[in-house]
Every structure is written in structure tokens, then in C-alpha cells.
Design goal:
By secondary structure, the protein is α+β, with helices and mostly antiparallel strands. The chain has four domains: about 5-110, Gyrase A, domain 2 (2-Layer Sandwich), CATH 3.30.1360; about 130-315, no CATH class; about 320-490; about 550-700, Glucose Permease (Domain IIA). About 50% of the residues lie in helices and about 15% in strands. The strands form six sheets. An eight-stranded antiparallel beta sheet has the order 18-14-15-16-20-12-11-22, with no helix packed on it. Strand 1 and strand 2 form a beta hairpin. The model is unreliable at about 90-110 and about 505-540 (pLDDT under 50).
């Protein structure tokens, strides 16, 4: 007799059974588990369970499983399983909820929560800048190509604007706009990550880059001495009798990262002390009064010293053991990039360019990039040979992104991390490229670029760099082609799937013409009757689901908008729950119904609302991130599950100060949870929206 495992049973088995659960709850879309041991959970297996939309491992043996709108019923069904009832339901211990939460927080901090937070801070401060850094690096690559062919002279650092044509000076201004003002951009992103006003962070950093700050070296009482080692003047200004070390902060990244970390403490402390009705004026004012001097006198110089010190340490290793350095860098990157741990090295590269005028890390790093792209090229060759259409498309797109954009993520996440045999072959390419770089005496980059075919002229010596990356590419590619990237079982499975697909196509093509004609005739004869039956039986579709219909959904609150992929929660940003938009509430937070409908999700915590609109669109409004942990504090809920609501009717009023003091982001995703029913879901709201203004447009597929 066959045994059928239900979704609740499969989920319980996947998380290690009832005996592995310490605490179990849910929010509007996710099951939330606190487990004794989460290390044995197979994420891929969880995501294959029917009804599961995604799985999110977290620190401290916490685990989230995305269910969507049916989360309440799945939660109830799991709690009703005999194994759960025998352990007392959702809590597997005698501890109170508060005890469990305290233990979870302590465990997370004791394991890797702080480390995770640190690298998330670095990553989220840089990641939004990747497009502009990539665009600027391509401009640099273009100038380097023109320099290599002798059209312009872009490699002599002693040339001034008077020695260059105006077109070249303007082109340099185009890319330097990114690198010169990079500290301000980093400060903005870092402040946003720490949930304070990003413009305050940007303004504090900008104060150290104004013409007036630069002119402090000329002020009365300022002194300058020439440092022969660094070949630049070091100046000190005396502000009210206190010495201030003056630095050029353009291109610096450690300074804004350190400054914003301190600013966040000051800003949030001021928000607690200053009455809410005057915070708009006095929180930024006192933040400026405190942080601009602190940054200029202390954080700025310390940040320069940190960046210079790290760069000097690596420079010493590069000088003392160049072969070791050239091999270690490309061998490290394949492990750093998937974890997001490469950002500190990127920051050091930028600091090197700002301090030394060149960088010595990007050259060896190029061997890693091209070994990565070579492995992808090998996979592409095998996919073409085996007629694997899906892998061919994946590998071709990843290879193009790598060779011309210098972007390794499509290769890593789309291919390499899925097949364990790829990494050893990729590392062999890294080793060969690094060895050639080290034996050749090292490679320097004149600016920060992404390692692609277009950026080769930026590196010196260019011939050595070209040989190293070619060897890395060829080694990885050859090893993949010769030894394959799949195990025997994976190869057999892929070929069986390809054979089955070919057999299906062949049998379809070989269908006798007479039979096909007969079937066509029968179908044509039956069509009118069947069509009549369907017309009589089919229910009238709701307005938004009528083929080709275009429906606009109003904003539920006053807010600024952000792309969904920028929402700092992978469950929402990935689109697993549905497509939509992120909102940053402005002013008093009053969430309203965007249209007439029925409330289908309304937990007592008040942090989320699921509404089935009368027009057929199903939406989720999730007020803040992780605000379920507040258990309703700060939420004045106006509706209940099952209530009918009309457009503009209040759903909840939220006390902003309670959320902010608890440290939770106010970011509010608004999602279309039945996205699959529509041909497209588009954001039509501007940078800011008012309640009732058009926010999202959905288009039903054509008939």
C-alpha cells in the first residue's frame, strides 16, 4: 500500500520532527521555527514540499519556511499532528515565550549574529553601488583602450588638465564622479541599512569634502609638511586651538562606514530624547553638531589610518612573498564571494588607489574571475554537446555577463555552487593564474574596475595580466570538458531527461497524417458543442482577471517607494511571496485598504494584512520587518479576519516610535500574492505616494 505524506507531515519531518522543535509560531506568510539543531535540514528538500514557496535558514538554529496566504491553516495542521500534540503543541518546553525569545537571542549572539550583521552592513553599504561602479569601470576601460592605441595619454599621472584635450578631461570627470563622491554614497547606504535618515549620513560625510574643508589647509594657523615617502603634503589645521589632521577623503570607504556606525547610536539616542513633533528639525541639527566635528577630528583620521594600515600590511606581503600573495588571493575569492565576505578586500582596493595611486590586489584577483568564467565556458561546451537546452541558456548568459561585465554571480549561483565537482577544477585555474602572476612579479591596476575583457588595458604589465587570465580560463575550461562537472549519476539523469525529451518530440512528429487529420476533423466537429458547454458553465471572471484587463492598485499609506529587490528580507525581495513594491512610511503611519475586498489574513499582532479584493487581486501588506515579534505593541488594529472593507478604510494605526525604539525596520512590502494569475505586475507609483494614489498595475494575460 502506498503511503501519502501530507504537507504538514513533510514539513515536520524536514525540520527534524517534533522533538527537535523548541518553539514554533508564524507570521503573515512564514512558519517560524526555533530548533535544537538546524544543521541537518536540507533546504532543497524543504522547497520541494508541495505548498512551500521557499526556505530561509537563519542564525541561532532558527528556520523560516515560506507558505504564503495559507500559513495559518498549515500552522494549525502541524500543531494538530499527533507528534506535536504529545509535546504540547507549538512550544516543546515549559519555558514561557519570553524565556524562549531571550534564549534565542542569546544563542544567536553567541554564534554568529554579530558576524552576520557586520558583513550584511558591509554588503548592503556597497551592493547598491555595483551598477554605478560597473558603469564607471567601463568608461575607464574605454580610456585605457584609447591610451593603449596611442590616441590619448591617460596613463601618465603627472599630466594636468592643461596637458589634455577637453574631451579627455570631461571623460575623466564622468568616471571620477563615482569614485570621488564614493564616501557620500557609501554613507547614504550605510545609514539606510542602520535605519536612520540616509541624508543625514550623507551630509556628515559631505562636510569633509566641501571646498571650504579643503581650504582649511590655507587658513590662518594651519601648518603643512611634505612627506617624501608618500610624496604629498600633510596638513594640520588648528580649530579653536584643537589640532585637526586634514586628509583628502575622496574615494575613502572606511571613514563613512565607521562614521555611520557611530552616527546611528547618536541619531537613535536623540530620537528617544527629543519630542516627536520637533524631531524633524532637531535630530538632524544635533546630529550635525555632534558628528561633523567628531568625524573631522577623530573618525576621519582613524579611518584613513585603518585603510592605510591594512593596505600596507598586504603591500608588505605582496613585496616580501609575491608568489604566495599572488596565489592566495585568487584561491580565497571563490570562498569569500558566495558568503559576501569579499567586501573588506574591495574596500582595501579602493583605499590603495586613494592612498598609493594604484592597487595590487585586483591583478591576482583577475585569475579567480577568469578561472570562474573558464569553468562556465566548459559547462557551456558540454551542454551544447549533450543538447541540454536549459544549461546551455544558463551558461551562455553567465559567460556573457562575466566576460563583458566582470560579474561572477550568475556563474556562481546559477552553476558552480550547484555541482560540487566544479570547484576543484575552478581552483586549479586560480592556482595556475596566480602562479604566473607571482612569477612575473605582480600586476598593478591604475583604478578600480571589474575584471572583464574590456578592462584588460587597465592592468600593468598588460601582457603578464593577459597571459595569467588566459591560463586560468583555459585550465578551468579544459578540466571541466575533460572530466565533466557532473557525477556519474547526474550525467545519467541529464542524458535520460534529454533522451526522453527527444523521444517525445520524435513520436509527436511521427504521428500519421491520416490520424492527425481525423483527430482534427473530430475536434472541429465537437468544438461548437464544447464551446457552448464551456460558455454556459464557466463563471464570470472577476474584473482584474478578465483577459487583457489592466487594473491599478492604490497605495495603502503615505510613503516613499523602493524596488522590491532592495527590501532587506530575502523572503520578500526574492519575490517568493509575490511581486510588488517596498514602502518606507512617511509621517503618521495609517494603513488603509487599497480597494473594496475581504480581509483573509489579520493576525492579532496587527503587523500584516491579507486582502482578497473584489476585483480579483489578492494582496499582502506587511507593516515593517520582523514586527511580529512586538506581539501587537504599537499597533492599533481596526479590522479582523473575515471583515469586509471598503477603499480607504483604516486597517491599522502604527506608533512609529515603538517600532523604531525596538530597532525594527518600518519597510512595508505591498505584494500581489496571486502574481501567477497575471501576465505582469508593475510598479507605477513615483518616488513617493499618498494613500489612494496608484501604486501597482496588474495586467491579466490575453485569452
Amino acid at each position: 500500500m502506498a503511503t501519502t505524506t501530507s504537507t504538514p507531515e513533510a514539513i515536520l519531518d524536514a525540520v527534524g520532527g517534533a522533538e527537535n522543535i523548541i518553539h514554533f509560531t508564524h507570521c503573515a506568510t512564514r512558519l517560524r521555527f526555533e530548533l535544537k539543531d538546524a544543521s541537518g535540514i536540507d533546504k532543497a528538500a524543504v522547497e520541494t514540499i508541495p505548498g512551500v514557496m521557499g526556505a530561509v535558514p537563519q542564525s541561532g538554529d532558527r528556520y523560516q519556511i515560506v507558505i504564503g496566504g495559507a500559513v495559518q491553516s498549515v500552522y494549525d495542521e502541524i500543531n494538530n499532528l499527533p507528534a506535536m500534540k504529545s509535546r504540547g503543541g507549538s512550544s516543546g518546553s515549559d519555558q514561557s515565550d519570553a524565556d524562549v525569545k531571550a534564549a534565542a537571542r542569546a544563542k544567536a549572539r553567541g554564534k554568529n549574529a554579530y558576524v552576520d550583521a557586520f558583513f550584511e552592513y558591509l554588503s548592503d553599504s556597497f551592493r547598491p553601488l555595483l551598477p554605478v561602479l560597473l558603469g564607471a569601470s567601463l568608461i575607464i576601460a574605454g580610456l585605457a583602450v584609447l591610451d593603449a592605441f596611442g590616441v590619448i595619454n591617460a596613463s601618465d599621472p603627472n599630466l594636468t588638465a592643461e596637458d589634455k584635450p577637453a574631451a579627455q578631461v570631461f571623460a575623466e570627470a564622468m568616471y571620477k564622479s563615482v569614485f570621488h563622491f564614493l564616501p557620500i554614497m557609501v554613507a547614504y547606504n550605510a545609514a539606510k541599512k542602520l535605519n536612520i535618515d540616509p541624508w543625514v549620513g550623507a551630509s556628515v560625510m559631505a562636510a569633509l569634502m566641501t571646498p571650504q574643508f579643503v581650504d582649511l589647509s590655507k587658513a590662518i594657523g594651519s601648518t603643512c609638511t611634505h612627506n617624501a615617502t608618500l610624496n604629498k603634503d600633510l596638513c594640520v589645521a588648528h580649530v579653536a586651538g584643537v589640532p585637526m589632521q586634514l586628509n583628502d577623503y575622496s574615494g575613502q570607504v572606511f571613514v563613512p562606514l565607521m562614521m555611520v556606525a557611530v552616527l546611528a547610536l547618536v541619531y537613535k539616542g536623540l530620537a528617544k530624547l527629543i519630542p516627536s513633533n520637533v524631531q524633524m528639525v532637531f535630530v538632524p541639527f544635533f546630529s550635525f553638531i555632534i558628528m561633523m566635528p567628531v568625524t573631522a577630528f577623530i573618525i576621519g583620521p582613524v579611518g584613513i589610518w585603518v585603510g592605510t594600515g591594512l593596505g600596507s600590511g598586504l603591500a608588505w606581503l605582496n613585496t616580501s612573498a609575491p608568489i604566495v600573495f599572488a596565489i592566495v588571493i585568487p584561491l580565497l575569492y571563490p570562498f569569500l564571494v558566495p558568503l559576501g565576505l569579499h567586501w573588506p578586500l574591495n574596500a582595501i582596493m579602493l583605499a590603495n588607489i586613494s592612498t598609493l595611486g594604484y592597487d595590487f590586489i585586483q591583478g591576482p584577483m583577475g585569475s579567480w574571475n577568469f578561472a570562474c568564467f573558464g569553468a562556465t565556458a566548459g559547462v557551456l561546451v558540454l551542454a551544447i554537446r549533450d543538447k541540454d537546452k536549459v544549461m546551455r541558456q544558463t551558461a551562455f548568459g553567465a559567460l556573457a555577463a562575466g566576460l563583458f561585465g566582470g560579474i561572477s554571480e550568475p556563474s556562481l549561483y546559477g552553476i558552480h555552487l550547484r555541482f560540487k565537482r566544479i570547484y576543484p577544477r575552478l581552483l586549479a585555474g586560480c592556482l595556475v593564474g596566480g602562479l604566473i602572476t607571482g612569477i612575473g612579479g605582480g600586476i598593478k591596476a591604475s583604478t578600480f574596475v571589474f575584471s572583464s575583457l574590456l578592462s584588460i588595458p587597465v592592468f600593468t604589465p598588460m601582457a603578464l595580466y593577459g597571459i595569467a587570465i588566459t591560463a586560468a580560463f583555459a585550465t578551468s575550461m579544459a578540466l571541466i570538458i575533460l572530466t565533466d562537472y557532473r557525477t556519474k549519476e547526474e550525467r545519467a539523469e541529464a542524458r535520460a531527461a534529454a533522451a526522453a525529451a527527444g523521444e517525445t518530440i520524435s513520436s509527436t512528429e511521427a504521428e500519421p497524417t491520416e490520424k492527425k487529420q481525423a483527430d482534427d476533423g473530430a475536434a472541429a466537429a465537437a468544438a461548437p458543442a464544447e464551446e457552448g458547454d464551456r460558455t454556459a458553465k464557466a463563471p464570470t471572471p472577476k474584473p482584474a482577471l478578465v483577459p487583457g484587463a489592466v487594473t491599478e492598485i492604490a497605495s495603502p499609506l503615505k510613503a516613499t517607494t523602493m524596488d522590491l529587490d532592495k527590501v532587506p528580507d530575502p523572503v520578500f525581495s526574492s519575490g517568493a511571496v509575490g511581486q510588488g513594491v517596498g514602502l518606507e512610511p512617511q509621517g503618521d503611519i495609517v494603513v488603509t485598504a487599497p480597494a473594496d475586498g475581504t480581509v483573509v489574513v489579520a493576525p492579532s499582532s496587527g503587523h500584516a494584512f491579507g486582502i482578497t479584493l473584489d476585483n480579483g487581486v489578492e494582496i499582502l501588506i506587511h507593516v515593517g520587518l520582523d514586527t511580529v515579534n512586538l506581539e501587537g505593541q504599537g499597533f492599533d488594529v481596526k479590522v479582523s479576519q473575515g471583515d469586509r472593507v471598503s477603499e480607504g478604510q483604516e486597517l491599522v494605526r502604527v506608533d512609529r516610535s515603538v517600532i523604531e525604539q525596538a530597532g525594527y525596520p518600518l519597510t512595508t512590502p505591498v505584494l500581489v500574492t496571486n502574481t501567477a494569475s497575471f501576465a505582469s505586475v508593475e510598479v507605477v507609483g513615483g518616488d513617493s505616494v499618498e494613500p489612494g494614489e496608484a501604486l501597482i498595475k496588474v495586467t491579466a494575460p490575453e485569452a
